[in-house]
Amino acid sequence: xxxxGGGHCQRAFANDTQxxxxxxxxxxxxxxxxxxxxxxxxxxxxxxxxxxxxxxxMSVMEHSHRGKEYEAVHDEALSLLRELLPVPxxxxxxxxxxxxxxxxxxxxxxxxxxxxxxxxxxxxxWGEKAFSEGKVAATLVGGAARVAFTTGLGEGKxxxxxxxxxxxxVKVSPKAAFLxxxxxxxxxxxEFAADPAxxxxxxxxxxxxxxxxxxxxxxxxxxxxxxxxxxGAQKNIGPSGVVVxxxxxxxxxxxxxxxxxxxxxxxxxxxxxxxxxxxxxxxYMIRNVLAWLKGLGGLSAMEARNRKKAALLxxxxxxxxxxxxxxxxxxxxxxxxxxxxxPTEADEERFxxxxxxxxxxxxxxxxxxxxxxxxxxxxxxxxxxEELARFLDEFAxxx
Length: 399
Prior knowledge:
Radius of gyration: 21 Å
Strand content: 5-15%
Order of helices and strands: HEHHEHEHEEEEEEEEEHHHHEHEEH
Structural class: alpha/beta
Number of strands: 15
Number of domains: 2
Strand order of the largest sheet: 2-12-11-10-7-3-4
CATH architecture of the largest domain: 3-Layer(aba) Sandwich
CATH topology of the largest domain: Aspartate Aminotransferase, domain 2
């Protein structure tokens, strides 16, 4: 028997355009935070082309990155990204390796001048890591890094992050090399600009730099406001192994020339991300995911789909608020990572175990904070979320 909200769960996505794919194939309901679910049509396309790409008698992984077959894929991925976001002509797109973690160091290595300083907004664990690496990297080039504002509460293992800053709380030095933020904190479940009351900060003439690894491509965004955006692929874009960078030409020109060429953003920009051998299969899969995303109607359609999914889960949690607790304040709740707690750790373990029996995996919270986390990125199907919402009601009722 469905819980009282079950009918709403079944109707919530009735008018959505469903992605095409082999619906007869049993798919695990994947709520992993990353590497995360990939769209079934993108995987099926890869399966069909795995052994014979473009009638070449070879896999795309076997092609030279200088050859016309791979170059066509590379160019299509760049073109689709520029179209879907859209990326203004003032910015370049780069496909890099090393993940967002490498960018924690690479950004200040490129952009901090001797005697200068970068500033950071810290709203969770990934912001902490970015700042920690930023301090080391900035020092190497004769500069510094400092925290402009943090929403952290407490110390050590008890430290909590429950929100992003209010606009009036952000003060940035006009001489800062850049202001860095993490747009969505996957571990703590807080996100910038998910609610109009918590917009991206105004930084004046200071370049705004954002780690968007876990909320890239889920909605339209004005990239002209940002000097540099970077995103590890393994959440919303494709498989692990690629990091997408969108950087203004002005910052490219300003970047330091006294660091190794491989770490200079201009090097990859001047070579269309082909200075060295790129992760060709990763870029190929990004192309497949972007084509799927375009077929669904682009980022406006994806935002509507994602907001429905998040609203469904938060509604189930709120109507059972005596049992579930969402640490994030409502204005800062992430649309991508729904984080919540149950009364005891034993209850949480039982929740994860029962969910797994129903084909729902990846719900255990990050080891540093515990709890439950449902990552509902673009490829997370609406029906998976509907089933999870029903399970939330049922589990609370049985408690």
